[in-house]
Design brief:
The protein has helices at 4-14, 22-28, 36-48, 74-84, 89-96, and strands spanning 52-60, 63-70. The chain is an alpha+beta fold. A two-stranded antiparallel ribbon has the order 1-2.
Length: 97
């Protein structure tokens, strides 16, 4: 199951049609003051949990950055959690809404 920060990242990825780089995720989370290194730790964790995948590489200045996309839709993710019984229904509903 994703942490609160990972859920915020997943939410940004679910709300966009394009794959996003770590920098783009930071830019879309205007209410957060995440450092680039922190986002990359969270992205690494999401990759290990098989919740996101590397979709492509985007040019960012002179270098290329990995761009990520969720493995599951929002609905698939919450159904998976509900089936595993790892979240109580009240918390599940709060996260969906």
């Amino acid at each position: 199951m994703a942490t609160n920060t990972e859920m915020q990242i997943l939410d940004k990825l679910w709300r966009t049609e394009d794959a996003l780089t770590g920098r783009e995720i930071i830019e879309k989370c205007e209410d957060r003051t995440w450092e680039s290194s922190y986002i990359h730790i969270c992205l690494g964790s999401l990759l290990k949990k098989n919740l996101i995948r590397i979709e492509t590489f985007k040019q960012a200045t002179k270098n290329y950055a990995r761009a990520f996309r969720p493995v599951f839709t929002r609905e698939e993710y919450f159904m998976m959690i509900a089936r595993n019984g790892k979240v109580d229904w009240r918390e599940l509903l709060l996260r969906i809404l």
